[in-house]
Amino acid sequence: MRQFEQLEHSQFYHIYNHAVGGRDLFQDSNNYEYFLKLYDKYISAVAITYAWVLMKNHFHLLVRIRSVDECLNLTGFQNLSGLKPLYQYFSNLFNAYTKAYNKYHETSGALFERPFKRKLIDSEDYLRQVVLYIHNNPIHHGFCTHPLEYPWSSYLTYISKKPTKLEREAVLGWFEDQTNFMAVHEQKIEREEIEQWLEL
Length: 200
Known about the structure:
By secondary structure, this protein is of the alpha+beta class. The protein has one domain: 2-Layer Sandwich (Alpha-Beta Plaits). 44% of the residues lie in helices and 14% in strands. It has helices spanning 29-43, 68-75, 86-105, 124-140, 155-158, 168-174, 178-186, 191-198, and strands at 12-18, 47-54, 58-65, 117-121. The chain has a four-stranded antiparallel sheet. A hairpin with a 3-residue loop joins β2 and β3 (58-65). It is globular and about 45 Å long. The chain starts with 11 loop residues before the first strand and ends with a helix.
């Protein structure tokens, strides 16, 4: 079995996964919205989200696992013994969504591949590359011709002024400002190069 990075506090990760056996993860807008609701419930206490996209049969996330102190403050635990292993928070999300999805669609069985994939991000250059890769994913798969046209990603939040839990100022800073952020998203990215590095 292929080994994946262990999640560690204060580190950035690209987290991604596919549905099993050709299943869809999302069939309608209710599915997308409910996944995001559960994501906030299960993940916000242990990770900060910087970019995301939900596709019909897979997803991509760029997160920073919170520091130990941040996790303890948000969960109310006094020490690390109260926290579950970091991967467990994501597993709980996937299990909760699978249960709700199967009930909603009157289906059964596993929905997500195991283990979920994660890749440590250790430089600002790769942070930018992963943001671009995530926001361009719907284009790569033929769902649209520009990130503006796809509703289930964080791109629209970054060109908006609406309040958000995403780290908008930090991400825009990686691209200097919002204008450059949008300009860079107009350029062709080296998808194959990024996928080779990500071992997708």
